[in-house]
Amino acid sequence: MSGTIYYQTKYGSTEEYATWLSEDVGFKLMNIKKGPKIGSEQVVVLGSSLMMGKVTAAGWIKKNWDSMKDKKLVFFSVGGSKVGSKERADIITRCLPEDVIKKMKIFHLPGRIDHKKLNFLMSRMIKSFAKNEKDEVEKRRAIDGYNDVKRENLNPIVAYIKSL
What is the architecture, at CATH level 2, of domain 3-111+148-163? Predict the structure, then answer.
């Protein structure tokens, strides 16, 4: 089965997952910032970071929807909010049309916060938002930074793709 992984990354977590996934399933890898066109592949995997309440790849997905809507679609999001949280589902629902969401198999992956790689403003915003976090563990993680990007997080996606 042929496939391509199209991804958009801001600070590298989505790209790291996309690269590992490409190695694990043998699909081509395309950064959507380079403006790729959907090809003849049977499976399209879409990877996007979630930043400030937005799906960063939403514009590209909408623009290319007609070229991919009849393919097998897999979507993975990478962000700082908790995997499985209502917040993640709400972001996707708000940013992508209902017909797009219904066609995709959606997976959520944990990300990382590395304050040294963030620009000053983004780092300050995260630390400021963290002050309102009620969960002390999550508050500390946001302030100190963390890295939950691990290859094994892809296991359910790899299994799903191999089952197609």
Answer: 3-Layer(aba) Sandwich (3.40)
Question: C-alpha angle with apex 80: 150 to 33, nearest 5 degrees?
Answer: 80
b/e per residue 131-156 (b: at least 16 CB within 10 A): eeeeeeeebebbbebbeebeeebbee
Beta bridge partners of 112: 147
The domains of the chain are located at 3-111+148-163, 114-147
Res 139 pLDDT > 90 = no
String of DSSP letters for 82-111: PTT-HHHHHHHHHHS-HHHHHHEEEEEEE-
Q: Would you state the structure tokens that stand for residue 144, as one six-digit string?
A: 């100190």
Name the β-bridge partners of 55: 50
Full-model pTM = 0.89
Q: State the Cα torsion 7-133-152-69 to the nearest 10°.
A: -30
Which tens digit of pLDDT belongs to each residue from 104-119?
999 999 998 877 887 7
The rounded distance, in Å, linking the Cα atoms of 55 and 49 is 6
